[in-house]
Amino acid sequence: MARIAIIGAGVAGLSAGIYAQRSGHNATVYETHFRAGGNLTGWDRRGYHIDNCIHWLTGTNPVTDTYKTWQELGVLGEGVAVHRSEPMFTFEKDGERLSLGQSLDQFEQDLLTLSPRDEREIRSFVGAIRGFQRISGIGGEKNNRPATAAEKLAAIPAIARYYGMSTGALAQRFSHPVIVGLLESMMTDSFSALALLLVFATITGGNGGVPEGASVAMAERMSARFLSLGGSLRLGQGVERINLKGGRGVSVTLEGGGAESADYFIVTADPAVTFGKLLDKGLMPRQLQRQYEDARLQRFSSYHCAFACDADALPFRGDAVIEVPKALRDVLPAEYFLVREFSHEESFAPKGRTVLQAMIYCREDEAREFIALSGDREAYGERKRQIALAVERIVTQKYPALSHGLELLDVWTPATYHRYVHSEMGSWMSFALPAGRLPRRISPRIKGLENVLLATQWLQAPGGLPIAATVGKEAIGAILKMERWRGAAQSSASI
Ligand SMILES: Cc1cc2nc3c(=O)[nH]c(=O)nc-3n(C[C@H](O)[C@H](O)[C@H](O)COP(=O)(O)OP(=O)(O)OC[C@H]3O[C@@H](n4cnc5c(N)ncnc54)[C@H](O)[C@@H]3O)c2cc1C
Q1: What is the DSSP letter of 107?
Q2: What residues of the chain score a pLDDT lower than 70?
């Protein structure tokens, strides 16, 4: 039985811990915070709950392989209801609106009704979304059976057309401003169009729901699964350094003092932090290093406000996209932002009230500015106050019904993520995939270090919860392989 030290109790760390215990090994997960989950978290403010993470959890359709992984991790399965918002995203401009919900047929119909002129482009676009549903393992008229290998293969030509396209370029193929707006606003306009198509396929394929209780409840279920398998979860215990000897990790030095030994080490922290703090900078795998140096691979973050409001004053369901008026772009330098309501989670607010959250994406340079500013409490506080005022003004102008009873609960920024999960520039996903790139998984191995492995969403752009879960599982797979070799070498030596 090997002793496996896992640094970080986010999804990647908990996944590694669960798979380690399931395969008969002995895992200890060290986490700086007093709560497990990493980015998969939330917090309470004045009697309301703010959810930090899940907009959609890929893998909520039971026919997919990812669903089975979530079942193994205790995230989904019997007794866990999944919320599928209808609609999920709505874009509105000049009195016309377009929504994305759970039915691709309905979405296609709505696109055609909105813009018959765009029919050719719509048919091709919807064909590619259907293709993506097959590729991601969903088949059947009602997305109710696993796709066959032949169906997956047949889906490729419809998708290939979009390979070299960005989300912005995809949007410009349509003439109707509402379609253009929806396509440009869901992610940033420099993302790969394939990534956006995959998101549409996920949502309309019933594969992007939100499990009951959202982020905190999901993290708690994963922690409970890990503990029930006999794992050790050391909350409030950060790791300062991995100590090496002769090309092997031997122990971890704990923050606050003391060292603990292990046979294997799995690091789930942001690699820009891992290599510099836990390990020497020069040990970063070349492939990962090259991604950091590649100007086309952007990182991003976001800033947010949460408000409380009357549940019956809500003028939309799911997420709505709101345009930032030009006059306010010096405060909110973005074209759009998302507002999201939580009326389906009754426990998040007192009776009759609910939570409304705004999310504004920002580039790496803006994120770094927030982090630098957070060193000056007064200036940072003032910046957050301006953000809240601007968001409140835009939201109430668009939805006058919300003018009464809107109450600010919190504002958080890339500096919050930097402080909370120690991500270098507040990023909470991996690199944004640009046009013309397909995601490739980087090996979890670190050259020259036999028993120290990486399990972080940064091993595959664009990251996200399923990738974090998968890399955790794969790190344990790599350890199992090493253990088998070791066992074989020992038994041949004893013959
Ligand atoms: C606003 C927002 C919305 C999102 N929406 C979605 C979504 O809809 N769907 C989706 O799939 N993904 C979404 N994500 C992304 C998702 O949260 C991440 O991809 C995922 O949580 C990453 O998990 P991880 O384990 O790789 O990393 P992290 O969550 O960063 O976990 C790393 C952990 O390591 C700990 N740590 C770091 N250094 C040390 C140390 N020295 N010692 C001990 N512990 C340490 C950190 O405290 C942290 O808990 C969203 C994230 C955010 C913030």
Answers
A1: H
A2: 494-495
